[in-house]
UniProtKB/TrEMBL annotation:
Pfam families: Complex1_30kDa, Complex1_49kDa. This is NADH-quinone oxidoreductase subunit D. Its main location: membrane. It comes from Natrinema soli. PANTHER family: NADH DEHYDROGENASE [UBIQUINONE] IRON-SULFUR PROTEIN 2, MITOCHONDRIAL (PTHR11993:SF10), NADH-UBIQUINONE OXIDOREDUCTASE 49 KDA SUBUNIT (PTHR11993).
Length: 553
């Protein structure tokens, strides 16, 4: 397995809890340790200087997630910090505010990704972030009354929309003598936006000078629904629906890993191998779809690349259907393992999967001939959608988007889980930082996933029959200790998919927060698109491989 230090990188410096305490000093009001990381409680007006010190002095350059929540006596923002060089080094910065004045200093000048995070926290919970450059709602209309995840929110309250909201959006063209720019709406109902995404674009001639992604058209209350479900049985069916087109088992693993660590549940080794194999099948299905739709975005090739990609994706979907019984909403993982063993006859299942893997190299060669070797595709993708590594880190980008900018970050290797650390495979990176590099990363990751699946099949084929334990013994009712908090993540097809859970002592989470890689990656679109042309904007959006069900959640 790749060590991540092939290019002369220095191993990250280990920062102890005592070092963190000394760095934060008397700005720490209290300690609030989480299961995954030490936690420090600070004042609302110390946010920027504490986060700056942690980033610049201690190397915590990855704002992985921001969780906002309301207690009976306070509001609270939790900044989950990691290191791109070593995500096992984590720290939680907890910022409480009073209930009558929920105002906290913005973290946006330190981490650009805090822009969207803090807008979402205000929108759903009701915390104001002083100094925020764009303090608007992000998921709900500006006319919305109340904050849906606050304690006193009335779900039965009717929402009144002002008359201006009903104004005709198709207005006559008008010309401003003082400006040569044009405002252009892209979406929200357009095939190249990969879902119901509205992009407000300002053009100067054909050059993009401003981009504002408008999300929230597909918000489905996933976090609130998970807070109303029991740990043991009722939450697991929901993760399939976040990235609903291809990454179901990867999503399920994010919840499984978090809840299992929260409740101290062991997973049998045999079940870990099955999880690893099936998750990589989902990764291949996801990347096949990404390649197919990206080709469609870039040069409208429906008959060749799109159809080829869907053809090969169907084969992996058939295998997943044999394993799980479903094609999209798998609901196959269980806390403590998986639902059942390989289908019988297992030799036939293993042979079918091997046949797919044997034919994969020829199919990848075909994609290179049709896609990466295509002159139009190269012209459209080389040196467009540039995302420099430091900018990508500022926006919390992960997955193929980050690795296409040369960031060697993959949780399967860097924060091992499942059976990955026992297998031989490599993390793929490209240094081009453009749309073309992101395509190359996904295509090469298909081959690395195939390596992992092949090794898992070898293990499963030879596993002693009397040791094939698919689930550990898990209590029917799980009630973690009150105020136990944890953040865990897995390497989804699109990047770091994380979940924060706070237990309130019942069999349901007190707070359930989803960290979506698509949410972070999409927030970087303006950086990639400004100064380029509209077709480049479409290509850049396609290269992010977003799914709006996961962006809006």
């Amino acid at each position: 397995m790749s060590t991540g230090l092939e290019r002369g990188q220095q191993p990250p410096v280990e920062v102890s809890e005592d070092d963190l305490a000394a760095l934060i000093g008397d700005r720490a009001l209290a300690r609030d340790d989480h299961l995954n990381a030490p936690g420090f409680v600070i004042r609302p007006d110390d946010v920027q200087n504490v986060l700056s010190d942690l980033r610049d002095e201690a190397g915590f350059d990855h704002l992985s997630c921001l969780t906002a929540q309301e207690y009976a006596d306070r509001y609270e923002s939790i900044y989950h910090l990691k290191k791109y060089a070593d995500p096992t080094q984590e720290v939680s910065i907890v910022v409480p505010t009073t209930t009558d004045n929920p105002v906290s200093q913005t973290a946006e000048p330190v981490f650009r990704t805090a822009d969207w995070h803090e807008r979402e926290a205000f929108d759903l919970v009701g915390i104001d972030y002083e100094g925020h450059p764009d303090p608007r709602r992000i998921l709900l209309p500006e006319t919305w009354q109340g904050h849906p995840l606050s304690r006193g929110y009335d779900q039965e309250k009717p929402q009144l929309v002002t008359l201006t909201e009903h104004a005709n959006p198709v207005q006559p063209d008008h010309h401003d003598d003082e400006s040569d720019t044009m405002f252009l709406n892209i979406g929200p109902h357009h095939p190249a936006t990969h879902g119901v995404l509205h992009i407000e674009t300002v053009l100067d001639g054909e050059t993009v000078v401003d981009v504002d992604p408008d999300i929230g058209y597909l918000h489905r209350c996933e976090e609130q629904m998970c807070q109303q479900g029991t740990y043991r049985h009722q939450i697991m069916p929901y993760p399939d629906r976040w990235d609903y087109v291809s990454a179901g088992l990867l999503n399920e693993w994010a919840y499984a890993r978090t809840a299992e660590d929260l409740a101290d549940i062991e997973v049998p080794e045999y079940a870990q191998v099955i999880r690893t194999m099936s998750a990589e099948m989902c990764r291949i299905a996801a990347h096949m779809l990404a390649l197919a739709t990206f080709a469609l975005d870039v040069y409208g090739d429906f008959t060749a690349i799109f159809q080829y990609g869907m053809r090969d994706r169907e084969v992996i979907q058939d295998i997943l259907e044999d394993l799980t019984g479903q094609r999209l909403m798998f609901n196959y993982f269980r806390l403590g393992g998986v639902a059942w063993d390989l289908p019988e006859p297992r030799e036939e299942f293993i042979e079918k999967t091997r046949d797919f893997l044997d034919g994969l190299p020829a199919k990848v060669d075909e994609y290179n001939d049709l896609l990466t070797g295509n002159e139009i595709f190269q012209i459209r993708c080389h040196d467009t959608g540039i995302l420099e590594p430091e900018v990508a880190k500022q926006y919390g980008c992960t997955g193929p988007v980050a690795r296409g900018s040369g960031i060697d970050y993959d949780l399967r290797r860097d924060d091992p889980y499942g059976y990955y650390e026992n297998l031989e495979w490599d993390v793929v990176t490209e240094d081009g930082c453009d749309n073309f590099s992101r395509v190359l990363v996904r295509m090469q990751e298909v081959e690395e996933s195939a390596k992992i699946i092949e090794q898992c099949l070898d293990l499963l084929a030879d596993w002693p029959e009397d040791e094939r334990t698919v689930q550990s013994n898990v209590p029917r009712t799980l009630k973690p200790d009150p105020d136990t908090e944890i953040y865990r993540a897995v390497e989804g097809a699109k990047g770091e998919l994380g979940i924060y859970i706070r237990s309130d002592g019942t069999d349901k989470p007190g707070r359930f927060k989803i960290r979506s890689p698509c949410f972070h990656n999409l927030s970087a679109l303006p950086e990639m698109s400004e100064g380029e042309y509209v077709p480049d904007l479409i290509a850049s959006l396609g290269s992010l491989d977003i799914v709006l069900g996961e962006v809006d959640r």
